[in-house]
Amino acid sequence: MTTLTDPPKESFRLSMLINDTRYRSLTFQAIAAVLLALAIWYLGNNLIQNLRAAGLNISLTFLGDPAGYDINQRLVEYDSQSTHARAALVGILNTLLVAFLACITATVFGVIAGVLRLSNNWLVSKLMAFYVEIFRNIPVLIWIIIIFTIMTAALPGPRAFRGDNATSSMLFDLFAFTNRGIYIPRPVFESGFFAATSLNWVLVLAVLAGSWFATRRVNAAATAKQELTGQRPNTLWTVLAIWFVPFAALMFLMGLTFDVPALKGFNFAGGIKIGGPLIALWFALSIYTGAFIAENVRAGIQAVSKGQTEAASALGLRPNRVMNLVVLPQALRVIIPPLISQYLNITKNSSLAIAVGYADITATLGGITLNQTGRAIECVLLLMLFYLTASLLISMAMNVYNASVKLKER
Amino acid sequence: MADTQNNSVAFVATEVIPESPPPARETGVVKWMRENLFSSIPNGILTILSLYVIYLVLAAILPWIFNGVWTTSSLAECREVLQGKTGACFSVLTERWNQLIYGFKYPVEEYWRPNLAFVLLLVAIAPVLFFDLPRKLLMFTAVYPFVAFWLIWGGTIMAPIVAFLGVAAGGIVFQKFGKSTFAVGFFGGILAAFVVWAIGGALIPEGASENALLPAVPSRDLGGFMLNLMLGVTCVSLSIPLGIALALGRQSDMPLIKGICVVFIEFVRGVPLITLLFVASVMLAYFFPPDSTVDLFLRVVIMITMFSAAYIAEVIRGGLAALPKGQYEAADSLGLDYPQAMRLIILPQALKISIPGIVNVAVGLFKDTTLVSVISMFDLVGMIRGPVLASTEWNGVYWELLGFAAFLFFVVCYGISQYSQWLERRLATGHK
Amino acid sequence: MKKSVVFGALTVAGLAAGAAAAGTLDDVKARGKLNCGVTTGLVGFAAPDANGEWKGFDVGVCRAVAGAVLGDPTAVEFVPTTGKTRFTALASGEIDMLARNTTWTFSRDVDLKFTFVGVNYYDGQGFMVPKELGVSSAKELDGATVCIQTGTTTELNLADFFRSNNISYEPVPIETNAEAQQQYLAGACDVYTTDASGLAATRATFEDPSAHVLLPEIISKEPLGPLVRHGDDNWGDVVRWSLNALITAEELGVTSANIAEMAAGTNNPEVNRLLGSEGTLGEMLGLSADWAKNAIMAGGNYGELFEGNIGEATPIGLARGLNAQWTDGGLIYSPPFR
């Protein structure tokens, strides 16, 4: 009888670290870890020595000091006595505001241009191709400066509205387009009926929700009738009335009036002002990114197989319904991933606000605060932290959305 | 009997009626217009609207261009010549041409150097862009960076020679050992290069740059459109190898290496380039050894290279993912190890697919080089916003200068993107 | 010089420079060049001209220091800096001194660890408005839109002024003078504010300068002067006394025209001490005996620099005002050379 013996135990040799695939990856990772640690130690050590030599330190306490400067565009309460941290918050909100607005309009521009570029109208498609090429091939910084300059040069200043022979006048006496910004009427609630402001909001929401449910009921009824008789009753007017009448009644009860902008002193006073820098940056980012989105949209539409279009046409759908009901929903799946990266680009490009004097985070924290406190390292690190967080959050949110519209394969 | 038949049946035509021309609305221009411009009422409206927009734009721009003044020496003089008429003062371009192209500091008598470097760049880049050219030209491409460096910066010729020898030594070592064990060849090559650089650096005397054949030009004196081109070319070419390494690292199954690459790529892609440039201009100086300063140009090149490497890595990752799994398995079954499989099978195919994407990144990066104007470098936009507009003569000339900058960038970027499309078509046929 | 291998290669390539920590003065002498930080372009103070030569009042100070230290006023490397990068550039040793119309404030001196060696221009923040607005005082500017050129302490002064006078305004901060000016001329702002000297310089380039007025209020004190790093007192002394030499030269009537003759020796012992024909002031600073002579020869004395770059004969047309010698009722005053 032979007894089973274990195979001879392989002794560990040093050369196995390189030659044996089981250990090789460990070796490489160990080398990488050591190199990484060395690099961090080297840079950190240099930093510490440099700071010590210059007598500086790293601390974030300056964020609690009064900022001392004013910001013209602010979504939260802020004045020159507020802290640098508050100024940074104002900047963050402004960045998010312009990025949000630009994402929406860029999508609109992009979809229109992308669809029109495939139009069978030769002139329109060439014009759109021209738009796409000219915006894609010139740096966004140049576009921002050009559009800002055009805006201030083309729109009239408030002075043009003054006097008996004013060269400019307000649109419908409600809107004023000046090179400092656009002034629109602001709704004011005189609160004739209800005093508590929070209650007002609840009421508004309640009425809107009621209208929404009513609309659904009407539509459901219309669909039921359609299935029964094949004729869909026209619900447009009913729906409009359901939305409009209760809301108008509520507004009347709450004493809605409009605060119309009017010339007062140097500027228009009253109303809501949408500042010139915001408009310039918003428009420049939208039209620039719109050109990229147009290309994505075009690629997406062309990716939908021609059979789909032909099948839809064979069913008797009109061209615009073919586009809306058949092509675009399918193209969307191709379009959305690059669209996400365009949204990220808008957020990142909004940092060029610095060129038009829009108070985004780069202009407040990374601009005036850095200038005045001289705390370069802290400011730049915080700035990068913000953009990193924003980018990661946006791509996370959009990936969730992307997953939800993805083709459900079973 | 055919004759009689012909004559007898009166109602049969005996000769072929000549082809009459199609109705006017179905031929030539009219037909084309009916089909392409006025096929339906909405289309007609769109056409007319487009024509109106084109008219508005041209009516505003054409008189301005054609009335342009090219020969005055200041804005005031130009306004005098125009006497209130619409017209451009293009004379700012002729008068400040050198400054806009080369920056305000580059010595005038040395302009031939960047010009020559630019021409050589076209020669060096041609074999990379067009596969039909003889492969031997790639030799020149390999030498080009060192020639260009010497031409533009000048100074002692020893510096680029030592740099080249270092790279060459590294390459030789890699060729020798890389065939058997990739890691040994790779690290040995790097080591060899550093050894050569260290020895060479010690051999070059301190004041070697003083009386060199080409006078040294400090990189602070570079500027204008030349700076944009240099930053674009340098950073793109440096970032391609780095991008490949990052892309491979991200696909690696070693968790630590993968982790480092993912963190790096996501970090760089998550922040705007301008913050990285702030790092270069206000922070990076603190991370170098205390008793040394590094040129702003070099700092900017480091940051932009990192930036574009992260984007290129993502493009290449896409290329790697697009390869069928069979390619990887085939390489494995042939008994190739990882470096061989990558070098011989995977990368050549993946890179080929990625080229259009890489070109897009390159165009984007080239456009983004204008951002350096924000950190006090005088590139084209920086020259315009800084010295030219600040000067007493040309204070207030915006459109001509901005239009010129836009035009230059458009020409270059449109050219590159047309190339990319051509390449895409060519590569597409290769796969069918 | 302690350098790593890579740094050695980079230094040879001219892309990096190792600077010994011994002292800035020795570094500058060893390098043979003075690295001087200036603005990216403000006509009159520091701006490259059509030939790419830096010209201006701040540039003159740099050249004087280069003259004093190296004997060659052209041995200056001008490093353009923005409001953001200037302090890092100085702190990290990229530049040896900063002459970039920088206001001397407490926090910059104490918190950021810089030494302001003197004042070469007493400025103050002013306002410019179009004449047709009919405004005669800054206190009438309630509700106005104000274009600000960012960079110095402008934003802070403006906020303080309007706050203390209890009037409202809308700030529009713009990075470069050229763009701020375009906004102002297009009527996107009612008022343009920056240092009074900058306003005068800007107005001088307008198509019709007489259509714009500078308001009488000067709302801040802006002593602009060159600065160096904390801790290198020798170097601080060199820059300080180079500036003082320019000022004293004007006070004593030493100009670039008569300096050659006066350097040979005069009856005025202070002139002799200044120009090195008597005493050992240069040696004490670690410079040559004729250091002050070289500094003055670089571009003339303080008055000549002023008149040549920003004075009334130039397009900028600034009056001496506060920047007259103390003997003429101004604030320019140098400690004695003794």
Oligomerization state: heterotrimer
Number of helices of chain B: 18
Could you please say which CATH topology of the domain at 221-432 in chain B applies here? MetI-like fold
Spatial strand sequence of the major β-sheet of chain A? 1-2-7
Per CATH, the superfamily of the domain at 221-432 in chain B is MetI-like
Question: Total helix count of chain A?
Answer: 12
Q: What is the approximate shape of chain B?
A: globular
List how many beta strands of chain A DSSP finds: 7
End-to-end distance of chain B, in Å?
61 Å
Taking pLDDT < 50 over at least 5 consecutive residues as the criterion, the unreliable ranges of chain B are: none
Model regions low in confidence, pLDDT < 50 over at least 5 residues of chain A: none
Mean pLDDT of chain A: 83
Mean pLDDT of chain B: 84
Question: Would you kindly provide a written description of the structure presented here, covering whatever features stand out?
Answer:
The complex is a heterotrimer of chains A (410), B (432) and C (338). With 410 residues, chain A is mainly alpha-helical. Chain A has 12 helices and 7 strands. In chain A, the strands form 3 sheets. Chain A has a 3-stranded antiparallel β-sheet with strand order 1-2-7. In chain A, α3 packs across α8, α5 packs across α8 and α6 runs antiparallel to α7. Chain A is extended. Chain B has a domain of 212 residues: MetI-like fold (Orthogonal Bundle), CATH 1.10.3720.10. Chain B is built from 18 helices and 1 strand. In chain B, α11 packs antiparallel against α16 and α14 crosses α16. Chain B is globular. Chain C is of the alpha/beta class. Chain C is 37% helix and 17% strand. Chain C has 14 helices and 15 strands. In chain C, β10, α6 and β11 form a beta-alpha-beta unit. The longest helix of chain C has 20 residues. Chain C is globular and about 60 Å long. Chains in contact: A-B, A-C, B-C.
